[in-house]
Amino acid sequence: DAKTTQPPSMDCAEGRAANLPCNHSTISGNEYVYWYRQIHSQGPQYIIHGLKNNETNEMASLIITEDRKSSTLILPHATLRDTAVYYCIVRVPTSGTYKYIFGTGTRLKVLA
Amino acid sequence: DGGITQSPKYLFRKEGQNVTLSCEQNLNHDAMYWYRQDPGQGLRLIYYSQIVNDFQKGDIAEGYSVSREKKESFPLTVTSAQKNPTAFYLCASSTDRGNQPQHFGDGTRLSIL
User: Fold this and answer.
1) Contacts A–B by Cβ distance under 8 A
2) Are strands A9-13 and A106-111 parallel, antiparallel or unpaired?
3) Of A49, A101, B26, B79, which residue has the fewest beta carbons closer than 10 angstroms?
4) Cβ atoms < 10 Å from Cβ of B38
């Protein structure tokens, strides 16, 4: 089972900030949170990841709560091309490495 | 440009046939992974490999086989034992060190004729 919970869908007006929430209440102290997005019929695209500090890159910002039980991905100025399914992932250790467990993500629709 | 190449993009298989999906990476990553995605669902792990000549079963390995003879290549064979092979197959790779993310190819869509 996925270790994260996300709303199934969200809408956002073009040019506005899109704020995508994720709950990960069982995250352990040294596990990172990863965000990916998937546009139809393409592979997931890595966006950002973080441990406990807020992170920002050219694509997005990641805000992690102090207790680390939830996070929010922020797309500061959403465009139509940001319409995609967004996945929040916490890795699970397995046989000396880690695996990702994908839930069904949040389907973000950016509206013109 | 460095990346992961999956081929072909679309693949059709007759009932009872084995088919092999290609995955090549030039990122010098140690670890490689195969996932399956069904419509409206997340990805599920089929097999993964941390080093050459070694691989482990994921959550849904039945009906699939893999090999890892070269660091750059991790082909997946969908055998006739896989009863429901129609799906979108995704290959990924990572350095498997620290917390670096996995990077994905663009997938192969397999359909049964």
Assistant:
1) 55
2) parallel
3) B26
4) 12
Residue of A32, A96, A104 lying closest to B42 (CB–CB): A104
* Distance separating alpha carbons of residues A64 and A55, to the nearest angstrom: 9
Q: Determine whether the interchain pair B45/A99 forms a contact, defined as Cβ–Cβ distance below 8 Å.
A: yes
First to last CA, chain A: 35
A43 alpha-carbon distance from chain centroid: 15
Residues whose CB falls within 8 Å of the CB of residue B84, separated by 6 or more in sequence, listed in order? none
Q: How distant is the alpha carbon of residue A83 from its chain centre?
A: 14
What are the pLDDT tens digits along chain B (113 aa)?
669 999 999 999 888 899 999 999 999 999 999 999 998 888 999 999 999 999 999 999 999 999 999 999 999 999 988 889 999 999 999 986 778 899 999 999 999 88
Least CB–CB distance from B106: residue in A43, A51, A95: A43
Predicted confidence at residue B16, as pLDDT, reads: 87
A53 vs B: CB within 8 A: no
Q: Do B88 and A41 touch (CB under 8 A)?
A: yes
Q: Measured between alpha carbons, how far is residue A3 from residues A100, B43, B51, B58, B78 in Å? A: 10, 14, 27, 17, 29
User: Smallest Cβ distance to A44: which of B31, B99, B104?
Assistant: B104
CB contact under 8 Å between B48 and A99, yes or no, is yes
Which of B32, B43, B106 is the best residue to mutate to test the A interface, defined by the most A CB atoms within 10 Å of its own CB?
A: B43
